[in-house]
Amino acid sequence: MNAFRLYLRYISISFKAQMQYKVSFLLQTIGHFLVTAIEFFGIWALFSRFNTIGAWTLAEVALFYGMVNVSFACADALGRGFDVFGKTVRTGDFDRLLLRPRSTVLQLLGTEFTLKRMGRFSQGLLVLGWALATLQIPLTPQTGWLLSASLVGSVALFLGIVIMQATLTFWTIESLEIMNILTYGGVETAQYPFSIYSQWFQQFFTFFVPLACVSYFPILAVLNKASAFSVPLWVCYVSPIAGILFLLVALRLWKFGERYYCSTGS
Amino acid sequence: MQAYRSLFLTRFALLLQYRAAALVGIATQLFWGVVKVMVLAAFFSHSDSTQPMTLQEAIGYVWLGQAFIVAIVPWSGDREVQELIRTGAVGYDLLRPIDLYNFWFTRALAMRTAPLILRAIPILTVTMLILPLVGLAEWSLAFPPSFAALAAFSVSFIGAVLLSAALTMLLTVSMMWTISGEGVNTIVPPLVIIFSGLVIPLPLFPEWIKPLLNLLPFSGLLDQPLRLFTGNLSPEALLGVLIHQAVWVAVMIWLGRFLVSRGVHKLVIQGG
Questions:
Q1: B180 interfaces chain A, CB cutoff of 8 Å
Q2: DSSP letters along A5-29, please?
Q3: Which of A9, A19, B3, B60 has a 20 to 30 Å separation from B119 between CA atoms?
Q4: Closest CB to A41 among B28, B44, B194
């Protein structure tokens, strides 16, 4: 069986397992929806008082908000196995994964496809749809490329961060929640256009963790604002690739870290 | 009373053990605070009309919110007690010769105060003293404008702790009714987060919704004490804040006691 078919089989088992507790699933999804919807309610409240944030309107910010939340929800659902990797190492369960004749990355990706993330996903999608309709963004090949590249790049970036977090566990055993700053904090940050932040903050999220490359720059081009912020247009079209590169680096680090794995023996 | 005091001190000491987690938490809260401060500063810098609170007050409000986020905000009930209820081990607690509600309420009080030492003090130190030193004075948490403001804040803070513990108890004992406990424990925390002022300061909400926000119990958790601290609410308003808190504490304790006694009444402990 090839890797992809095996992955699909993992996912379908994961679906069935989660559907055993239907009420619990429903409540958790509603909870996720509420938590994220509240975040947007806060943004809306601020706009109803201040009208704009710099050169940006509510609908434009909603586009940033929708894109980053949809991508993060996907990455979060895919990367659950890496997210709980600290526990896998502590309990010694990782030994079992190593014994199987498949890559550990595939097995961890297949651990669980977290359906309750549908809450954040659907809320982000609603906001995104509203933003696209309000701003009357035309569906051209250009916007199609920019939005899908941003989506793929963001999912790759967030997955990369979660994998790096898991990689650190090879040395620390304990899971390091400090990376939550980059995942949840990254979502919080990218909900607004990066131009409102301080220079050093923008540089950190462009060159070190390329969050601006996957969310800010492509959307800048979608909104026809690239020249207004003196960003070359071609940068907006290619920058989401940085997310894929980040993921590749994370996977290399994972392979490297795996060699240092020492079972806890429990 | 002796028993409650010992219980409180033991729980408090136990909760102080999670230092590494606290360190990570502090870093996270500081990052969150910086983002929120930059967002608010951007909103304020392009506004020419006067707002119900100044940027400095809003920044102070954000930092205080980050400092007290783990202590005061009832994110969940007491998970250990919920686990006892779920597994039936709650039977041991029923055997104790003290009042069950008071016993759990004391635990909740420790849960809501221990993070003050581990999280609030470091965050307050960084935002009040260190930020001005590294040249970020405009992002720092300003001292209260007067001694009266500080005193009013301190008194209202005690009310906030009690309110938080009472709300924690409601979340905890909801477990007796739903077994999985997920319903109430999923729906309430998001309401707490937004209506206590954690997402954005409550004074910045649209005017028409404010009477409702002030009436709800959640504003007594963070919003009103924080506004007393920053000077957005004058110290004379303390009495109103305290009455608001006292009424809600009374209602919640009454409801919690009712739920506990009814819960115990219908409780079936699975043997095994």
A1: yes
A2: HHHHHHHHHHHHHHTTSHHHHHHHH
A3: B3
A4: B194
